[in-house]
Amino acid sequence: HYWAGGFDSEIQRIHRTTRPALNPLFEKLLTASDADIRLGRIVIPKKYAETFFPEVTESKGLMMNILDIENKEWKFNFRFWPNCGSRTYVLEGFREFLAVKKLQAGDTVTFYRVEPGGTMAIGTRKTS
DNA sequence: AGCCATGCACCG
DNA sequence: CGGTGCATGGCT
């Protein structure tokens, strides 16, 4: 059970010893629509979107480069939908990420802050 | 009160 | 007629 403790935590250990700190921000338990490959977009809970993501004013959103746990760079569009005077935040461009990581509903995606610099990183965990 | 999972209208 | 962009409604 070499990987006991989880893939993410092992990678975090590697990153901590060889790279700047990788601080967990929040997790998203993927819903059926998050994991739907035809949609290719996931909802970011408003609380976390407005706490941890860049401020976004235009509805079309902004492109973000996010590293995964293998240092592969992914480009996602962070935007919002107007919703009853509020906002629903989404990350678009998730189709290939879902496919490559073989994610399904019930799996978890974790967002990290890479220090210094404050860029974001992303990890995945299958249902346990 | 209002988020957010998902339905769905309508735009191209 | 497929997806975008938003609306709806279950749920807390």
TrEMBL record:
Domain TF-B3: 27-128
Annotated compartments: Nucleus
Name of the protein this chain belongs to: TF-B3 domain-containing protein
Full protein stretch here: 130 to 257 of 298
